[in-house]
Structures are given as C-alpha cells and as structure tokens.
Model the fold of this input.
Amino acid sequence: QVRFVESGGGLVQPGGSLRLSCAGSVSFSQVSGMAWYRQAPGKQRDLVAAVTNDGRMNYIDSVKGRFTISSDSAKNMIELQMNSLKPEDTAVYYCNTNPPILGWFGHGTQVTVSS
Done:
C-alpha cells in the first residue's frame, strides 16, 4: 500500500516561514510528477505546487514568489518551503502524485497562520 507521510506544519505568525516535508513509499522516479495540495476548512482540496520528474515546477498564482517546491528522487521525498505566509494559507497540506491518486492521500500536516 502506497503511503505518504507529511510533516513540518505548525502555527506561525503572518509573514513567517515553514518548511514541509513529504516522504513516500512509492518511487518518485516512477511517476510523472509530485505535488503539494491543501484543503482549507469548508473548501475543496486544491493543488498548490507541482514538480515533474524532470524538474519543472508549477505554482498557483497566489503562492508564486513565496513557495518553493523541491524533490529528491533518491530519497523519495519532496519539500515545500513556504515564506511570507498569510492567513489565507491556513489549511491541511498533503502531498501526492500529480495528477493525484485519491486513495494515496495521507493524513496531511496542518498549517495555521495567525497572529
């Protein structure tokens, strides 16, 4: 069974930074890409940032210039560096393949941006 384990979330003030990590039991080199998703309370889960297995990155407009996705295929790990955090970034963050496989979503990691 494929598993992803996310970590690194927490409570941070507006303008602060967090670095999320995701370790997977699937070989990242065998999928077309990986991504970070987030789900805020009462909203659907949306893609935030994606990276292909040849290193191309893509971001939603609201996080461009603030978030950076990176991957380490040898370690089957991806990370998300989040800077200049805003209250609207508050959500549970998940990693998965891109496109996602619904049954592979893990528990996620909670990010709360609040003063």
About this structure: The first strand starts at residue 4 and ends at 7. The CA atoms of residues 33 and 53 lie 5 Å apart. The mean pLDDT is 94.
